[in-house]
Amino acid sequence: MAKFSYGRDALIERARALAPTLRQRAAETERLRRLPEQTLADFRKAGLMGLLKPERFGGPEVRIDTAMEVTAELARGDGSAAWVWVILACHDTLAAFFSEAAQQEFWADPDALMASSFAPSGRAECVEGGYRLSGKWSYCSGVDCAQWLMLGAIAGMRSTNPPVPELIFTLVPRDNLTVIDDWHVVGLRGTGSKSVIASEIYVPAHRAISWSAADDGTAPGTKVHQSPLYRAPMMAFFPFFISSPGAGIARGGLDAFVAEMKERPLQDGSPMGQVPSIQMRIGEASALIDAADLLYKRSLRETMDRIFAGEELDLAHRARSRRDQTYSLVLAKRAMELLFSAEGARGLFDDHPVQRAARDLHAVSSHVVGTWDGPATTYGAVALGFAPTPNFPL
Predict the structure, then answer these.
(1) Structural domain total, the chain
(2) What CA–CA distance (Å, rounded) separates 12 from 42?
(3) pLDDT over 70 at 313, yes or no
(4) Alpha-carbon distance 297 to 68, whole Å?
(5) Domain harbouring 319, CATH code
(6) Residue 168: what are its φ and ψ, rounded to 5°?
């Protein structure tokens, strides 16, 4: 069995080496509308799977800020492949919030993978020993690769005034679900983010956790693992997974644009790259991408440092953190819009890499925790001394 180094430089080097292969395979990935089996095999061969798997179950438990640099390098090759990679990776962290019994079931296969849909789209009826789960969940990225799904559900009402829904996460084998092939979309086409349906599935109690426990440091997994990460509020770090491909996707689009403009001829045969407006767009787009990358990395590094130092993630920090995560996507998307608008008719073809990067960034920014409006208004409210925006998760 191959032995890999899980140091930062070694991980980045292996991800960077794989990016050209992902770039060459990007059109096929879009055509399939899912991750090709060979790409998953390439991830494994490069020692890039299971980076966030806890040490307790044989994983390297790489720090999240280090692992997310891998996402950026993979995204430079193909946004869809990087998105599936980070979604599968992040669930090794989320699995650690469940009970030890649930984790033992999940990692009985050391290569097990998990997809999810957080939205409480189903209902979990309380029955003896657990729940009876029914419903339909959409946007289950990487479901074709996964053996398990983490699904949000409503399990009755909490006895508060006024009563509010009791939200839980359930861990369900994919074989118990029906997968619906409905992923026909504009961006991130190759992520296979299909829907799943459950019909009266029994879920034992040990494979369920409450949303509140996952976000207040009292989840069952806190008794299983030593790392302070699993006692941190889940929503303090989960959004970083979603925004992690942004700058990498944009940098891949910039790579393609620069290479094209060096060769693409004008009517007189000279390269289009000699046009001052093209040069200006490259200058501005590259600055936007660098700014997105720096903003994202600063916020993630500071969050991880605070978690591992046992420091409180106060409201001001979390509001700024959410601002930074989503604004990094705003900057990356703006960079691609600059370049795509300079492509002319050539950029209209689906297989054009700059167009693909622009589409993929619009898709990333459409994720419920990747959109800009909520974090922006919440940050403004907190900065002015007001309460956070109602119903916006921090």
Answers:
(1) 3
(2) 15
(3) yes
(4) 9
(5) 1.20.140.10
(6) -130, 160
Single-letter amino acid code for the residue at 27: A
pLDDT mean over 208-226: 93
Print the domain residue range for 148. 112-211
For 348, residues 6+ apart whose C-beta sits below 8 A from its C-beta are: 355
The pLDDT tens digits of the residues spanning 267-292 come to 888 899 999 999 999 999 999 999 99
Among 247, 194, 211, which residue's Cα sits nearest to residue 365?
247
Q: Looking at residues 330-350, what average pLDDT do you find? A: 95
How far is C-alpha 87 from the geometric centre of its chain's CA atoms? 5
Same-domain pairing of 75 and 129: no
Q: Quick one: 255 and 348 in the same domain?
A: yes
User: Whole-angstrom Cα distance, residue 90 to residue 85?
Assistant: 9
Longest dimension (CA), the chain: 78
64/54 Cα distance (integer angstroms): 12
Instruction: Indicate the residue among 95, 127, 153 that finishes a domain.
Output: 95
- Say which residues have a Cβ less than 8 Å from residue 136's Cβ, sequence separation at least 6: 121, 122, 180, 195, 196, 197, 198
Assess whether 238 and 359 both reside in one domain: yes
Instruction: Confirm if 227 and 107 have CB atoms less than 8 A apart.
Output: no
Is 325 a member of any domain? Answer: yes
Domain end among 95, 130, 157: 95
Q: Cβ–Cβ contacts within 10 Å for residue 295, how many?
A: 19
Amino acid at 331: L
Indicate left, alpha or beta for 50 from its phi (over 0: left) and psi (-120 to 50: alpha).
Answer: left
How far apart are the C-alpha atoms of 41 and 295, rounded to whole Å? 32
Residues 61 and 125 in one domain: no
